[in-house]
Amino acid sequence: MELEKVINGDKATVKIAGRIDAKTAPEHEKALLALPGEIMELDIDFSDVEYISSAGLRVLMMIQKEYNAKGGSLKIVGAKEEIIEIFEVTGFTDFLNIEY
User: Fold this and answer.
1) Residues 21, 12: Cα–Cα separation, whole Å
2) Residue 46 has pLDDT above 70, yes or no
3) Element (DSSP H or E) covering residue 6
């Protein structure tokens, strides 16, 4: 699992690389939930994500709920066409803010 974090005030950008699957999803979840509570705007950079499984989708849904509950925002940026297709097929484009 590769993860880079940049925090600037109440905004964070987290860049994920590789696969988000059953093996790595718990680590990603832990890292995203460990961000400081004052973060209100979270961008997750998917430009180097090769694959996301249902376990990874569950993590995104949970993180989205966390940010909704505290009045924050979550945005997926830089996702490749294959990943966007997974978001579309699963209906995640209905509730995730995805920057194409």
Assistant:
1) 23
2) yes
3) strand 2-8
